[in-house]
Amino acid sequence: MSDDERFNPPDDGAGRARAADEALVSKLGQAARAVAASEPAGPSPATWHRLARLRAQPVRRGHRPLIWGAMAATACASLVVTTAVVRHVHPRALTYEVSGGASASSGEVEGGTLGSAVRFSDGTEVHLDARARLAVSAAGPRGARLRLQSGVAHFRVKHLPRAAWAVEAGPYVVEVTGTEFDVRWSEREQTVEVKMISGSVRVSGPLLTERVALGKGQHLLARPGLGDVHIDDGRPVRPAVTVPGPAAAPSTLQPVRPATVPSAGTEASAPAQPAPRRAVARPRAHRRLALVEPGTGTLLPPPSQVLGASGADPSSADTGAPALAPPPLQDSQPARAAPRWPARNWSARVAAGDAAVVVADAESLGIDATMRQADAADLSALADAARYAGRVDLAERVFSASRRRFPGTSQAHAAAFLLGRMADDRGDSAGGLRWYRAYLAEAPAGPYAAEALGRQMLIVRRSQGREAALPIAQEYLGRFPNGTYLLEARALIDNR
Amino acid sequence: MTAAIPLRVLRGAVTDFDTDEGLVAGLRRGDARAELAAWNRFSARVDATLRRLLGPGHDPQAREDLLQEVFIRFFARVATLRVPAAVGGFLTGITIHVVHGELARRRRRSWLRLTSTGSTPEVATPPPCTEAREAVLRYYQKLEVLSPKDRSIFVARTIEGLTLAEVASVHGLSVSTAQRRLLRATKKVSLLVRRDPVLSGFADAGRAEGRGA
After folding, report:
1. How far does B6 lie from chain A, in Å, by closest CA?
2. How is chain B split into domains, by residue range?
3. For B41, nearest residue in chain A (alpha carbons)
């Protein structure tokens, strides 16, 4: 088909109209060509000379300013965008100012006699009490790593996207995104306290198998030297006998849940059932309220003294960092045992790695006598030393004795978990399951709760099947969405 | 009134560039004599093409700028020419592209200046001296309704006389697409011509003359 044939329409109604159109434009096209041909043809020689001059120039003058302007604008825009991206990806590190107290170039701030305040450029504030010492070990763009070397500090961390703050207090690390809380660290007492005011933090360190989340109002007291971690909801209780004054304020009786002990074939199979204790709930601890007893103006005793171990706690002489909140409830029975038990300081030895020495010391005293007379801290330390020394049978006996003698204490709760873990580790799934359930019943929000629930889930899945483990997995995900058994729990739910 | 006297640049010693192959080879070497030879051989043709594509009455200075633009592009792109014998068509394609760009630029300017008609105010329209010239002027005004590309296709085919394949090739279209756009433009222009009494009368007279002849 020729080009003209392709252009010419067929001979029908529409084709005739199209042919008429083409004839019309063809006529006018001819006229246009004729008119163009009638005009003077050909460019003048001056056109060539202008063209030659134009081509001799590297860039056309008329476009040069435009090109340079466009390039400059593009460069400026690129610079702005690059700067924004770089600042977004690698923002500048925070800066801080110190008012009051003394600060050193190394980033260490001392509260002095009146305290001091550290204000960061993102709005975060840290108030140091008198004689408290804080070190800014690393300041990043979205937070800083602070080390509370001693004393009490109040933190008000600005809640910003991707904020990352960490406060080291002894061997513990408090991870923060945005909240308000107090931290106390006493090196002599080897005691860490975290008192939440708002928001939430995560605490990790010795005796905590994973990061523990603390919410608004919660209080953590950790004494790694004594093997003791205690978390309460900020409404600590004390024995009624320790509350001074008449019954001016109505007391709330809070019976402590009796220990639920599985019927294992050990000494702990028939645990003592302590009588419900009467405890008076104190008002929620005001921010640093615990430093001074309301109405009396007298300092509260440090936790080591409240432990009531008749001076067994070596930290009792430290008065540099008063307690943020009253210590946890202690059973009255240790007080009866204490006079007959000299301080052995086993917890410090265990912390120093001398587990075998502690076991040998207990054997020299007599294991049975030790289990009868030792206070809660030393008994717990001996059980840990036996575990570390590979004396599983001794550890189980001591843990059982601890539960029998000091029911309801944090040591007794921890003993339940550790008994379960030892049983689980040696393949006694039924025993492990019973002890994990006992621990969760006694201390549902205890430091080993996540571990106990996760291990319980695995045992049930192994022994009773997926369907039986499914409710535990759901509970685990609900309570510990970032727990270490997260993947196992999700696998159970997803593969049902 | 002074009439422009067309002058021709003497060829001088540029005698090696009589053939298209020799000319293209000289241009590819960057020989200044080849460039002069190309100008001498093609400038009038390109200028005539520009006149036909742009229509009568177009600003001569603006047309000269376009002519320079055509040759600047031609010298810059001649290295891409695969068949030296097709240098004429190659130059025509560049000319059509330059005019197409100029028409699109004119249309953008008309939008920016918010004129009601969209016609280009910088085009000076001399008074028509003959009936045919007046008709052609009106005809080119009617072509303004087409998009720059449709106008370029339409003018290249119906006035410049390129084949449909050449029109499609120059505009980077398939033959069928070029044909479809050409038919659409033809229908639209014909309708406008018939509604214009001057143009319809001119066309009828032309057809009558054709029949009488």
Report:
1. 6
2. 13-123, 127-213
3. A42
Radius of gyration of chain A (CA): 39
| Span(s) in chain A for CATH 1.25.40.10 | 257-494
Per-residue pLDDT of A289-304, as tens digits, reads: 233 333 333 333 333 3
For residue B174, the SS3 value is coil
User: Angle at which helices A410-425 and A449-464 pack, to 10 degrees?
Assistant: 30
- Picking from A22, A31, A47, the nearest residue to B136 by CB comes out as A31
Residue of chain A minimizing CA distance to B42 = A42
Q: Among all chains, which residue has been given the structure tokens 């790593």?
A: A145
Per CATH, which fold does A96-236 belong to?
A: Jelly Rolls (2.60.120)
Interface of B with A in 167-206 (CB under 8 A): 175, 179, 182-183, 186-187, 189-190, 193-194, 199, 202-203, 206
Strand A180-186 versus strand A191-198 pairing type: antiparallel
pLDDT at A183: 93
pLDDT of B128 > 60? The answer is: no
Q: Which residue of A has its CA nearest to B68?
A: A51
Architecture of domain B127-213: Orthogonal Bundle (1.10)
Contact A29 B159 (CB under 8 A): yes
Helices B32-54 and B60-77, packing angle to 10 deg:
130
Contacts of A39 in chain B (CB under 8 A): 51, 56
Dig out the tokens for B113 from the structure.
């200046």
Q: Do B47 and A43 touch (CB under 8 A)?
A: yes
Q: Do B43 and A47 touch (CB under 8 A)?
A: yes
Helices (H), chain B: 20-29, 32-54, 60-77, 87-113, 131-142, 148-158, 164-170, 175-195, 197-212
Q: Which of residues B141 and A255 earns the better pLDDT score? A: B141
Task: Indicate the CATH number of B13-123 among 1.10.10.10, 3.90.280.10, 1.10.1740.10, 3.40.50.1970.
Answer: 1.10.1740.10
Nearest residue of A to residue B37, measured between CA atoms: A48
How many residues are present in chain B? 213
Of A22, A39, A50, the CB nearest to B56: A39
> How far apart are the CA of B128 and the nearest CA of chain A, in angstroms?
11
DSSP codes, A330-378: --SHHHHHGGGS----HHHHHHTT-HHHHHHHHHHH-HHHHHHH--HHH
Q: Which one has a higher pLDDT value, A248 or B184? A: B184
Q: A126 and A136 in contact (C-beta within 8 Å)?
A: no
Structural fold of domain A257-494: 1.25.40
Tell if the CB–CB gap between A35 and B132 is shorter than 8 Å. Answer: yes
Distance in angstroms between the alpha carbons of the first and the last residue of chain A: 70
Write the residue in B64, B75, B187 that is nearest to A43 by C-beta: B64
Question: Cβ separation of A3 and B165 shorter than 8 Å?
Answer: yes
**Predicted model pTM:** 0.36
Residue A209 has pLDDT above 90, yes or no: no
- Establish if B129 touches chain A: CB-CB under 8 angstroms: no
Nearest chain B residue to A57 by CA: give it.
Answer: B72
Compute the distance between CA of residue A116 and CA of residue A105 in angstroms, rounded to an integer: 16
What's the confidence (pLDDT) of residue A432? Answer: 92
- Read off the amino acid at residue A201: V
Q: Can you say whether residue A297 is alpha, beta or left, with left for phi > 0 and alpha for psi between -120 and 50 degrees?
A: left
List the one residue out of A349, A380, A377, A382 whose CA is nearest residue A364: A382
Average pLDDT for B86-106: 86
